[in-house]
Design a protein that fits this description.
- By secondary structure, the chain is of the alpha+beta class.
- It has one domain (4-79).
- 24% of the residues lie in helices and 45% in strands.
- It is built from three helices and seven strands, in the order E-E-E-E-E-H-H-E-E-H.
- The strands form two sheets. A four-stranded mixed beta sheet has the order 2-1-6-7, with no helix packed on it.
- The longest helix is centred in the middle third of the chain and has 10 residues, at 46-55.
- The protein is globular, with a radius of gyration of 12 Å.
- 17% of the residues are buried.
Length: 84
């Protein structure tokens, strides 16, 4: 994916590269911030990935819009993340 703006508690973080990959079960998300030269990783378990996929009609851009930065962690800002 191209540059993506993610929200954080401190304001806005612009990541240079946001990548998502799946093996058909888990969803692996990687966000790279070129300015700070750091990468953040998030693994979304199969159950939550499937629910998100259905909820977003297979649109991973909608899933990307649910991502947030919390300190030095990449998190999914969705009620589904709590139950998975």
């Amino acid at each position: 994916m191209r540059s993506q703006t993610l929200r954080s508690h401190d304001g806005i973080v612009l990541v240079e590269r946001l990548e998502m990959s799946t093996d058909g079960r888990t969803l692996n998300v990687s966000a790279y911030d070129g300015e700070s030269k750091t990468s953040l990783e998030l693994v979304i378990k199969e159950k939550v990935h499937r629910q998100l996929y259905r909820e977003c009609n297979g649109d991973y851009a909608q899933i990307a819009a649910m991502l947030r930065v919390d300190g030095s962690r990449l998190i999914l800002d969705s009620p589904l993340a709590q139950g998975g």
